[in-house]
Amino acid sequence: MAPARGWSWALGNTRSFVGNALGGVRGWSNLASWVVAGSLAYYLWVKPARELQKEQEERAALAAASDPYRYVEKRKPIPDPQDTGLIYGKKKEPTKSDD
């Protein structure tokens, strides 16, 4: 078997599989159906979701800018000096290698 024939056979099987997976319709009608389905999906789901997200971001930005009494952190918090990190806790025992 020549390599070119092997490649064309594999390519033909791949094309057949993809064509069957996409509904079995071939040619321009297949392409046209995918264009129509994609357009409907975009205008019914994707575009409204993006517009809603943009509106929510604009509202949040407006609310944050218009509130004069909002809390703004101006200093870094002071770290907890204890070894355990707990407010009430037993401190860590020094290990024997520290002696």
UniProtKB/TrEMBL annotation:
<feature type="compositionally biased region" description="Basic and acidic residues">
    <location>
        <begin position="90"/>
        <end position="99"/>
    </location>
</feature>
<feature type="transmembrane region" description="Helical">
    <location>
        <begin position="27"/>
        <end position="46"/>
    </location>
</feature>
<keyword id="KW-1133">Transmembrane helix</keyword>
<keyword id="KW-0472">Membrane</keyword>
<protein>
    <submittedName>
        <fullName>Uncharacterized protein</fullName>
    </submittedName>
</protein>
<keyword id="KW-0812">Transmembrane</keyword>
<feature type="region of interest" description="Disordered">
    <location>
        <begin position="73"/>
        <end position="99"/>
    </location>
</feature>
